[in-house]
Amino acid sequence: MALRACTVSYRDPGGIRHSVDVTAESLFEAAVLALQVFHAADLVDCPPGIGTHLEVYVREGAAVMHEVPVSKLRDWLYGVGAKSPKEMATKERFRSWVPWLKGEARGARLGGGGGRSRRGSVGSKVQAVTGEAEKLQGDFGLCG
What we know:
This protein is of the alpha+beta class and 144 residues long. The chain has one domain. It is built from six helices and four strands, in the order E-E-H-E-E-H-H-H-H-H. The protein has a four-stranded antiparallel β-sheet with strand order 2-1-3-4. Strand 3 and strand 4 (64-69) form a beta hairpin. The protein starts with a strand and ends in a 5-residue tail after the last helix.
């Protein structure tokens, strides 16, 4: 496939649109590259989470816009099987760019606590619930 210039964007819960320009061979490559940039950027207060829909604008030739739910991208990356050895290699390469996405695929960010007991005073239980709510907000793009 030929490399194409793309602009990938999403709108955070506050209504602010975040965009990045990437050069990619495929729609999913553009989405993965953008996720990598958004999560590495210190300027983004609310990076895209599992509930985010990315808009990918292919700027070369006839301008085309595609919508890619991060959840669908995650399911493809970490789903069982591949159609060909080339697809398997592509998935492995993309996974290395967004390793944090695997944790969202398995709900790792929901557990928290590192195995510590949640039993104790009411105050500690409230803190635990508050922490879980904050993690959920991040997971589903509900920052702020």
